[in-house]
Structure formats: structure tokens, C-alpha cells
Write a structure and sequence with these properties.
Rossmann fold; about 35% helix; 5-stranded parallel β-sheet; single chain; about 140 residues; alpha/beta
Length: about 140
């Protein structure tokens, strides 16, 4: 099983950025934990602060992976392009957010990804990624 985690803008700052919202652990350390916990899954990771690079990666992996876990960060609420890309690819996408976006600013309540995603996991901290991963494994 091949699954990729794609993170959007500012998620490279996890562990440093607003730890009250996003926690104190960096993503690379968390990703290592996920890889050792799910050794039977071919798990990869990509992060970009650039919308077009995220779209390029989705198109690259969107026809040969078993699942995509996507935290598009702020692009969730602004990118029609990422939403359209998810409609165009075959690989199922699970939208993930570390924080509960519905308990935050009103603009974070809108998602251009959700209507095209297989599912949405919001507000469980970094565990949101593991829950998304488990949903793919349980369906295999």
C-alpha cells in the first residue's frame, strides 16, 4: 500500500508555530514515528508553501498511490485549483487538519477540498494523520 502525506503552507514550522494551536512537535519527528508504527505501508511525505507545487505533486501521485492525506493549510480555504485537482485525480484524498477549524476564524469554516475528498478529519492534533492513515488501511 502506497500512501503520501502532503502538507501545505507553514506546516514546515510545526513545533515552532503557535504551539498552543498546533503543538510542540515538528512534523519530521512525527513522520518518523508514523513510519515505524506502520512498517507495512510505503509512506512518503511532501511539504510545500507554494500552491502550484502542491497541485503538481497531487497530479504526480494521483494515479498510482492508494491514498493521499492532505493538509493544505490555509489553501484549504482559498484554493479552487487544489479542489479542482482532487476532482481530476483517481487516488482518494482525505483532508486533515490539526486544529478544529470550526472553532477558529469564520474564514476557516470554508473548504474547497472537502466536497472532493473521501473524508475529513479535523481537530485531533497530529493524531489526525494517523486516523486518516488507519482509514485507508481498514479499507484495504
Amino acid at each position: 500500500m502506497r500512501i503520501i502525506i502532503i502538507n501545505g503552507p507553514n506546516l514546515n514550522l510545526l513545533g515552532k508555530r503557535e504551539p498552543g494551536i498546533y503543538g510542540g512537535q515538528d512534523f519530521e519527528g512525527y513522520f518518523s514515528t508514523l513510519r515505524s508504527k506502520f512498517q507495512t505501508v510505503e509512506l512518503s511525505y511532501y511539504q510545500s508553501n507554494v500552491e502550484g507545487e502542491i497541485i503538481n505533486k497531487l497530479q504526480e501521485v494521483g494515479f498510482d498511490h492508494d491514498g493521499i492525506i492532505l493538509n493544505a493549510g490555509a489553501y484549504t480555504h482559498t484554493s479552487i485549483g487544489i479542489g479542482d485537482c482532487i476532482k481530476a485525480i483517481q487516488t482518494p484524498v482525505i483532508e486533515v487538519h490539526i486544529s478544529n477549524t470550526f472553532s477558529r476564524e469564520t474564514f476557516r469554516h470554508q473548504s474547497y477540498i472537502s466536497p472532493n475528498a473521501k473524508g475529513v478529519i479535523i481537530g485531533f492534533g497530529l493524531k489526525s494523520y494517523e486516523l486518516a492513515l488507519l482509514s485507508f488501511i481498514d479499507l484495504a
